[in-house]
Amino acid sequence: MYELICIGASWGGLSAVGRLLADISEDVTLPIAIAQHRHPGALEGTLRELLALQIRRPVTDVEDKTPIEPCRVYLAPPDYHLLVEPGSFALSLDERVQFARPSIDVLFESAADAYGDRVIGVILTGANEDGAAGLARIKARGGVAIVQDPRGAERRVMPDAALAATVADAVLPLEEIGKFLYGLCVTPAVTQR
C-alpha cells in the first residue's frame, strides 16, 4: 500500500495545488508533501495560510525532523530543499537544482529512496524541467507517476519534461487527479474488506 503522496509545481502552481488538494477526498489519509517553487524571500506561512482556506486537512510548513503523519499536508519552506527520510522530513540548504530551492527533484528522489514503491508522485504546471528526474526515480523504484495533462497546465514545460523522462501511469486534467488518487488509495482497501 502507498505511504506518501508527493506533489511538485511551479508557475501556476498555487492555483493548481489548491484545486488538487480541495479535490482529494478526506478518505485519502496519506500524508502529502509539496514542493512549490517560490521566491527565496517569500514569507513563510503565506502559502500555508492560503491553502488552509481551501482545504480541511492540517497544513504544515516543515521544520527539520518534522515527523510524517497521516492526513496532513507538508510544505517545503521557501529557500530550503525538502527531503524525505523514513518517518520524517529533513531540510537542506544545498545548491539549487534547476534554479530552484525547494527542488521538486530533491523531494521526489528522496521520497523514492526512502519509500520505494509506496510513493505516488504528481507533477503539475511549471515553466522549467524540475521534477522530471524525480518522477522518473519514483517510477523506477516502482512508485506511481501522475502528470497533469500539459494541454490544461498554465505552463506546460514541467509536465512535458516529466512525460519525456518517464512513462506516466496517468496523464490527467487537473480536475481528475483527485479522483484518480482516490482510486489508488481508497478503492483497493474497500475492495479487500
Account of the protein in words:
Helices cover 35% and strands 21% of the residues. By secondary structure, the protein is of the alpha/beta class. Strands 3-4-2-1-7-8-9 form a 7-stranded parallel beta sheet, sandwiched between helices. Helix 4 links the parallel strand 7 (119-123) and strand 8 (144-148). The model has no long low-confidence stretch (mean pLDDT 91).
CATH architecture annotation: 3-Layer(aba) Sandwich
Give the CATH H-level superfamily: Methylesterase CheB, C-terminal domain
- Overall tally of structural domains: 1
**What's the CATH class label?**
Alpha Beta
CATH topology: Rossmann fold
Can you list the strand order of the major beta sheet?
Answer: 3-4-2-1-7-8-9
Main features:
globular, 21% strand, alpha/beta, 7 helices, two-stranded antiparallel sheet, 193 residues, Rossmann fold, 7-stranded parallel beta sheet
What can be said about this structure in brief?
With 193 residues, this protein is an alpha/beta fold. It has helices at 13-23, 46-54, 104-115, 132-140, 157-165, 174-185, 187-192, and strands spanning 4-9, 32-36, 59-61, 73-75, 81-85, 88-92, 119-123, 144-148, 170-172.
Q: How are the elements arranged and paired?
A:
Layout: E1 4-9, H1 13-23, E2 32-36, H2 46-54, E3 59-61, E4 73-75, E5 81-85, E6 88-92, H3 104-115, E7 119-123, H4 132-140, E8 144-148, H5 157-165, E9 170-172, H6 174-185, H7 187-192
Parallel strand pairs: 1-2, 1-7, 2-4, 3-4, 7-8, 8-9
Antiparallel strand pairs: 5-6
Helix pairs in contact: 1-2, 1-6, 3-4, 4-5
